[in-house]
Write a structure and sequence with these properties.
By secondary structure, this protein is of the alpha/beta class. Helix content is 31%, strand content 15%. The chain has helices at 26-29, 34-37, 46-50, 109-138, 176-188, 204-209, 240-260; strands at 4-7, 13-17, 58-62, 141-149, 164-167, 194-196, 216-224. Strand 5, helix 5 and strand 6 form a beta-alpha-beta unit.
Amino acid sequence: MQPVEVIQGDGPIVLGVPHAGTFVPKDIRARLNDTGLKLADTDWHVDRLYADLLPGATMVKANFHRYVIDANRDPEGVSLYPGQNTTTLCPVTDFDGRPIYHTGTEPEPHEIEARRLAWHAPYHAALAAELERVRARHGVAILYDCHSIRSVVPFLFEGVLPDFNTGTNSGTTCAPAIEATVVGRTQAAEGYTSVLNGRFKGGWTTRHYGRPAEGFHAIQMELAQKTHLATEDTPFAYDEEKAKQLRVPLKDILSALADLAPSLST
């Protein structure tokens, strides 16, 4: 299993997909308990949801599951949301705070480092290379980081999550025009709710690569899974009709960003 899959395009948009992969090596899978084996915290079908929405877009997808190592966490293990419940670089609990390993089999620091080198590092090497390639071609690269999560996760947030959750780390990871373009379209999407920099302000990927002064812009989109799944529990099936409707505003967002990109060229 290759850690990362890259679909190259010739446009200014790079789609990051760090959490749609479901591969877990046999030695790790054998240590997961029934909760862990459910793989409930997958960003189910996000790669399929965004596939072919924007001609010329590049997609960088992690093939491994976030329980192996989370490609959207700081490799140094620094928390994204200090003081709030969250999961770690190599999670030992799920999004409900329940253990995912058989007791006593959780990864030790040396194993976490080995996983970082084998999985996390190749994903980010590929993502960084694609962003550099795109910026060299267009004078700008826009990373749109694609995510999804269950609509109700009390361990992580109160109430029901809005449908569109845009994160720019309080406006620091991209040009104001990018933030305004995305927010304007999520707010205009009929039948959907939205928020900017709410519970999800952008993960490590967005914060690490978002360097607007250098021509690298990054924005995270966290979708509530009720927007495109038949059920937010096993078997987490893709709902063709819901997805078809959702792909309309998603295509609008990506197309608008591609149209905006030349004005941001450095």
